[in-house]
Amino acid sequence: MLKKIDRGQLFLKDHLNLFRCPKCQQKMISASNYQLSCEQGHHYDLSKKGTLHFLDHHVKTDYDKEMLSHRQKMIQAGLYGPLLAKLETILAEDQISTIVDMGCGEGSFLNELASLMVPGTKIGFDISKDGVALATEQRGEAFWCVADITNLPFNDDSLSHLLNIFSPSHYREFRRVLKDGGKLIKIVPEANYLLELRQAFYADDVAKQSYSNEKVVRKFSEEMTLISEERLTYTFDVSEKLQEDLVKMSPLQWGASAESLQKTESQLIEKITIDLLILVGSK
Length: 283
Prior knowledge:
alpha/beta; 8-stranded mixed beta sheet; 3-stranded antiparallel beta sheet; 26% strand
């Protein structure tokens, strides 16, 4: 069996045409000796885990290994099963050459799609090194890298499909890297997303118990040609084993008081509401 670093090098050799240098915006011309190099001589070394680090500066993020590990367990337990089934249906309508998860976190969404036999070359990247490290620990065919959504390491018109799941967007870059006829699939929360957690964390603050995605949806429609939008709402049964993972899987916990967190951790949340909007657009 090939080591991860060797699998990474083979991937880069086979897909050299997808990448460009984020430092000088020139095309990559070599993938050898465990390095990806551009025309201007900038190079990026593969890690032992077969990943690339495209950032030239340190980025502080609150999405740490602990939170992402809890999120990973919830995804693998089936929390987003209906969403993944819907994505599979949407993608089945298209000719897919590449699927890039823009803000992949710990990689579970992309790996779950791979397990559903969704075709296409798969790349996931995130600004969180912890997230990318967790992604490499899963079985799957995707290539992982640390990169910035505002300065994508991909060539113009090189990607057929972009996923943007619960992550920030940078539409100028999205349009630049999308092929003509390519699609951006963006997933955003709806008003009742994780409602039971919001009610537990913010029992005394009704305003924080709901969420409005109006600005996000309007921005999407302004920046992309809207192909479709669909709301997906369901509840997921949460076992006692998953209680801690549920409480600690999302940024919702960041604004809660220590007292609310402690109280929520000690109570049983039997069901959680998933309420999402699936936006599909082209450039």
